[in-house]
Design brief:
The protein is 33% helix and 21% strand. It has 430 residues and is of the alpha/beta class. It folds into two domains: 97 residues, Roll (Urease, subunit C, domain 1); 292 residues, TIM Barrel (Alpha-Beta Barrel). The strands form two sheets. Strands 1, 2, 3, 4, 5, 14, 15 and 16 form an eight-stranded mixed sheet that branches. An eight-stranded mixed sheet has the order 6-7-8-9-10-11-12-13. It starts with a helix and ends in a 7-residue tail after the last helix.
Length: 430
Amino acid sequence: MKQIYTFIILVLVAGQLSAQMVAKSEAGPFLLRNATIHTITSGDFTGDLYIKDDKIVQLGVNLRPEGKYTTIDCSGKHIYPGMIDAGTQLGLSEIESISVTNDFNEVGDLVPQMQALTAVNPNAVTIPVTRTNGITTALVAPKGGRFPGTAAVIDLHGYTPEQMDAGFKGVVMNFPSSGRRGRWDRRSDEDIKKDSEKALKKLDEIWADAVLYAKIDSAANSQKTQITGYQPEMEALKSVINKTTLLLVEVNKSSDILLAIDWIKKTGVKAVLTGVAEGYRVASKIAEAGLAVITGPVLDTPRREYDKYDAPYTNAAVMFKAGIKVAIRTDEAENVRNLPFNAGFAAAYGLGKEEALRAITIVPAEILGMADRYGSIEPGKVANLLICNGDPLETKTIVEHLFIRGWKIPMENRHTLLYDEFLKRSPGLK
């Protein structure tokens, strides 16, 4: 056992060292010249973009900013806003098969007070790997019980979780499922129904307790007294009840989606549906409810044996065409870098390139209430940008430069370092 733990420590240390080997980021200001600029919200144009501090300051043609700045010639290149993955465990997991390196699943069914942000490892080797593919921002979310914790949006640059914090938090809820729990689930249909009804009843009981707690707290505040019997889990749910915090409702099966819609209407919470793997089956109902969705992964297999092979690929398009606001996520810890390819498949299977780009930029920013700062290229917004040599949804495209909060991020990661090491190995092999 001692040897096993020693090995784990060595692996973690090696990972940390690998992360620290990446070159330092560069401070601005920066003038990006002669690029094709894809604003996402206001069309495309060829011109210049000026970054100062952490903001996009100016867009135009032949810009001549005052003061000193670094000029980058972007002739023949494309500038896009940094991509946003609206559902990951990035920074919460290092090695999936080693439990001590995973910190996204707390013990307990009711732990909404557990903060994903505090568990983020800024030195995770997966972060540089992710951002070199153009992803600058990610929602990191816990998994597990009914209320597994509070998710947070982070920018993928910083020495501490606080430095990476992008200013959004949302409580995660895993909606009770009425489906089988994998291929080895041998419960009868009647037992499945009973278990589903029991889970829904338990959810309603939890919510009734939370509503009562919120009422007591409100009364205490009005009388300028403190609530007795402080409960951290209820305190976390209170902000959802008061509609100051978004509820991220994870639900996938079509019948469960309909139940979730009814529950959201009944409770009146401010919510978004996440996962939504079978959203295409009930797209009209989601649209009628006026709910936005964060769906994915797109690069997935059909959930039912009789489904068409392309069901996961077309899901986003079907929902969008029904009038639903759709963002795309990877729901990954290690392969968040594949976000643009998830969007690319959605584009090819009906969503279209323009909407696919919006689904990983401005739309997640809108859903998460961050569109005033993120998701498009506009003066005053956070300078999260990527410069590439082609279509970012294509695997052949190379991201040549990346900016996060105005910092020019080195295009190095564990993969590039290993590639260079073995390409230029010394002493060489004969």
